[in-house]
Amino acid sequence: MTNNVRVRFAPSPTGPLHIGGVRTALFNYLFAKKHNGTFILRIEDTDQNRYVEGAEHYIIDALNWCNMPFDEGPGKNERFGPYRQSERKHLYKQYADELIANGNAYYAFDTAETLDFHRKDHEAKGKTFIYNWHNRLKLSNSLSLSAEETQAKLDAGDDYVIRFKSPQDETLHLTDIIRGDIKIDTNVLDDKVLFKSDGMPTYHLANIVDDHLMEISHVIRGEEWLPSLALHYQLYKAFGWEAPEFAHLPLILKPTGKGKLSKRDGDKLGFPVFPLQWTDPKTNEVSRGYKEDGYFPDAMINFLAFLGWNPGTEQEIFNLEELIEAFDLEKVNKSGARFDPDKIKWFNHHYMQEQYNEDLAEAFKNSQVELSEIDVEYIALVVGLIKERATFVSDFWNLSHFFFTAPTSYDEKASKKALKEGTDAIMNQVISIINTIEDFTVENLQTEIKGWITSNDISFGKVMMPLRLALVGALQGPDVFDIMYMIGKNETVKRIENIVKTL
């Protein structure tokens, strides 16, 4: 391994950052930090027709929310800048010309109509049209034309593209950190376009040139780029450059395990596929984000790390520092990883328990208008009693509303179960016991009420169920004595008196 690890995350600003892109960024980030390297953000915006306003800003915000800030990128430590490909387009033509000069590329003047004719002709014969060694001398390009004819077309301003000249009858031996050795027959490769008629490079040329100029040591990217590996290796060879090491990450699959995860799957099954909420600038359609849905960034990162990677131990909970320490590309799986929306909730529940009650209380208060006048310290005490049953801050109100407001009705099924003949007398006796307790603490409440139940040989259910119903309105919630202590003696008595009146 090179001593200077430099990796890049290179998204296109064509919309919000998909969860698969976040996973790719994460694996690049973990690898860079594991080896004291540099994590670079490069914006690949050569396709201006698909550019979406606000997408680049969204990408940066998403990385920051995930606690994966880039070391180099647009506006930050621009040692190898610029980091937007649209601002680098003056660089690429010279490299395309260099490939033509050394015989590894050629001008192609074929019109779109001509190529479409050949494609349809091949389809009609049950074949696939591939522009390469077997037919390029029959088409309109600088290999089939004389030097004079080629120059005349260039001088006349004819539209052209520059294609890579794939070799014939060779076997490429490629290496991928995750997938091992790969053999490719060059006869099945097409002569990819490297430079377009609009004066812009294709992804393949710009990607290779930028990776070389930015001294990228490892290219860690999605499996969808695996078919491009052969071309990229050949381009490095054609330029006489040392190729970086490659690692192609497995796909993130639908919850069913079949097919690549898409936004449609999230919409259909009710979970986000983007880290942050996104509003489409053209349609104003709003797409949900993990942040706005109440997920903690640590939970999402921990979950994503296990989509395709496994440390080889039973441990599942890793903070970011632990992930960096444990991460190893050779432990990344080849096969696709199934996205499990219930598993990320499991992670979020865990990280909920690790949050400070005071921080959760602030978030809870800000999300619930009923709490605007409630002291945040009291809310924090309530949070401490209920958060073990919560997955999101948005769960808190249903779990705790009775700490703030008395029940106005009682659950019908719970009432039938808890309220029996003689319950009113029992509840009145509980009121009497409560009124005798001067030091109103959880311990004293437990001692006095449980002692009375035991000494009078009453079943606990006959007392505790109607008592809980009086306080909560249902047979749920944390310990009854905690609730009584929190709402205070006067409110406790008042609620018990109210349920006695309904009897």
TrEMBL record:
E.C. number(s) listed in UniProt: 6.1.1.17
Name of the top EC class for this enzyme: ligase
Motif 'KMSKS' region boundaries: 260-264
Reaction catalyzed: tRNA(Glu) + L-glutamate + ATP = L-glutamyl-tRNA(Glu) + AMP + diphosphate
Coiled coil ranges: none
Motif ('HIGH' region): 11-21
Molecular function terms from GO: glutamate-tRNA ligase activity
Keyword 4Fe-4S: no
InterPro entries documented for this protein: aa-tRNA-synth_I_cd-bd, aa-tRNA-synth_I_codon-bd_sub2, aa-tRNA-synth_I_CS, aa_tRNA-synth_I_cd-bd_sf, Glu-tRNA-ligase_bac/mito, Glu/Gln-tRNA-synth, Glu/Gln-tRNA-synth_Ib_cat-dom, Glu_tRNA_lig_a-bdl
Domain Glutamyl/glutaminyl-tRNA synthetase class Ib catalytic: 4-346
Domain Aminoacyl-tRNA synthetase class I anticodon-binding: 368-499
Localization of this protein: Cytoplasm
UniProt subunit comment: Monomer.
Family: Belongs to the class-I aminoacyl-tRNA synthetase family. Glutamate--tRNA ligase type 1 subfamily.
Protein name listed in UniProt: Glutamate--tRNA ligase
Organism classification: Bacteria, Pseudomonadati, Bacteroidota, Flavobacteriia, Flavobacteriales
